[in-house]
Design a protein that fits this description.
Elements lengths: L1 E9 L9 E12 L13 E15 L11 E10 L4 E13 L8 E14 L4 E18 L16 E22 L3 E4 L1
Antiparallel strand pairs: 1-2, 2-3, 3-6, 4-5, 6-7, 7-8, 8-9
C-alpha cells in the first residue's frame, strides 16, 4: 500500500508572506501474509501487516487574529474641574501589542510505526504502534526584555520559538468470536 496526501492551507492570521503553506503526508503498508513465501505460516498467523506513516500538519488556532500587525489602544483622558468631572477632548494612543510580521504556522511532524497480527482464525487480533511527534515553531512570548526598549511583557510580540517533542506507544488486544452462530462478542 502506498499513499500520499498534500494539503495547501491558508490563514488570515499571518502576513501575506506566510499566509499559505503546503503540508505533506505519506504512508506505506505491506500485507506480508498475502505473499507466497508466507503460506506455510498461515497455520499460526492469519494476517500480518506492517505500516509506516509520516506527515506534517500546521496549526493556526492561535486565539488572536492579525498577530503580524501592531495593535493600538486608544481612549480619552478624564480630569476633574472645579465642581464637575469632564471628559478631555484629547485622545491618546499607545501600542498595545507590537506586531511580528514573521509570525507563521506552528507545525508538527508526526511519524507512526505499526504492526497488525491476527491469530486463531482471526479471533485474536493484536495491533501495536509506536509514534513520534516533533512540534516546532510554537508561538510564545519572550520572557526577556532588552533594557534599552520601552517594552513590557504585556506588549511584547509573539515569536515562533517554542518546541515540544513527544513519543509513545499503543497496544491493542482484541478477542472476537461467535457462540453457536448467533451470539457475536468481543473483548
Amino acid at each position: 500500500f502506498l499513499e500520499y496526501n498534500g494539503a495547501y492551507n491558508g490563514s488570515e492570521k499571518f502576513s501575506p508572506d506566510y499566509r499559505f503553506e503546503l503540508f505533506n503526508s505519506g504512508a506505506l503498508g505491506w500485507m506480508i501474509s498475502e505473499e507466497k513465501f508466507f503460506k506455510p505460516l498461515r497455520k499460526w498467523v492469519d494476517m500480518l501487516k506492517v505500516r509506516y506513516s509520516i506527515g506534517e500538519v500546521g496549526d493556526d488556532n492561535l486565539g488572536i487574529r492579525f498577530l503580524y500587525a501592531t495593535q493600538w489602544a486608544y481612549g480619552g483622558k478624564s480630569f476633574h474641574g472645579l465642581n464637575n468631572r469632564t471628559e478631555s477632548p484629547y485622545t491618546w494612543y499607545k501600542e498595545a501589542t507590537v506586531g511580528n510580521p514573521d509570525v507563521h504556522w506552528e507545525t508538527a511532524l508526526k511519524q507512526n510505526y505499526g504492526i497488525d497480527v491476527n491469530f486463531l482464525n482471526n479471533r485474536l487480533k493484536v495491533s501495536a504502534d509506536i509514534f513520534f511527534e516533533d512540534r516546532k515553531d510554537i508561538l510564545i512570548k519572550r520572557q526577556t526584555i532588552p533594557i534599552t526598549t520601552n517594552l513590557t511583557s504585556d506588549n511584547l510580540p509573539v515569536v515562533n520559538m517554542g518546541r515540544v517533542k513527544n513519543h509513545g506507544y499503543e497496544i491493542d488486544l482484541k478477542w472476537e468470536d461467535v457462540i453457536k452462530g448467533k451470539l457475536h462478542y468481543y473483548i
